[in-house]
Amino acid sequence: MKIAVSGASGKTGYRIAEEAIKNGHQLKLIVRKGSILPESLKNCEKVAVDLANKEDLDRTLKGTDALIIATGARPSVDLTGPARVDALGVTRQVESCKRIGINRIILVSSLCAGKLFHPLNLFGLILIWKRCGEDQLQKSNLEWTIIRPGGLTEREDNLDSEAILYSSEKTQEEGSIPRRLVARCCVDALSIKESVRKIIEITSNENTPRIKMREAISRF
């Protein structure tokens, strides 16, 4: 498949791109102007796009088979970021996919998306706006999958000792997971038909029984 990854220069996005390459996919990396990609992605097609520009976004996404949305607001004194990025930015990408005929979308969201009383909401009601983005994707009638990871860590070592806990919507409220494992989940979901139109919550630890994504989500 040829996959577009938006937010590809972010901490989760670049890992998604790396995992997609390992799985033999072609990539188109969508980034913000001035973004810097790691050396591992230097040979990939990269396009700097303003998500508010419909024509540029449509032109960029044309020719791809799927979109993985890894855009996300960064902590900032500007509390409008979550509304602009996690709600409006996601909506614009979904609408572009509908216009040009991309049917498959994976969205990286967050555990507790939509929950009002949560410490993360001190940053511009981020969980509320993430849920708004999710909602727009769910209403699209496209083949969507929403991945809701727990607290994201940068750890890259001993990942084989970690097992991923997959669960359905609103069943996990705490826990963490390395970004690398989130990236693998996003890429795995592309080829697992059981993940279509599912919200999948994920955390990881050494004590969770090891199970494949397909088997886990078939029980939802």
Structural notes for this entry:
The chain has 220 residues and is α/β, with parallel strands linked by helices. It has one domain (2-217): Rossmann fold (3-Layer(aba) Sandwich). It contains 6 helices and 10 strands; from the N terminus they run βαββαβαβαββββαβα. It has helices spanning 13-22, 54-61, 81-100, 126-138, 179-190, 213-217, and strands spanning 2-6, 26-31, 45-48, 66-69, 104-108, 143-149, 151-153, 163-167, 176-178, 198-205. Strand 1 (2-6), helix 1 and strand 2 (26-31) form a beta-alpha-beta unit. Helix 1 crosses helix 5, helix 2 packs across helix 3 (81-100) and helix 3 runs parallel beside helix 4 (126-138). It is globular and about 45 Å long. The two termini are 27 Å apart. The mean pLDDT is 96.
Write the layout of secondary structure elements.
Elements: E1 2-6, H1 13-22, E2 26-31, E3 45-48, H2 54-61, E4 66-69, H3 81-100, E5 104-108, H4 126-138, E6 143-149, E7 151-153, E8 163-167, E9 176-178, H5 179-190, E10 198-205, H6 213-217
Parallel strand pairs: 1-2, 1-4, 2-3, 4-5, 5-6, 6-10, 7-9
Antiparallel strand pairs: 8-10
Helix pairs in contact: 1-5, 2-3, 3-4
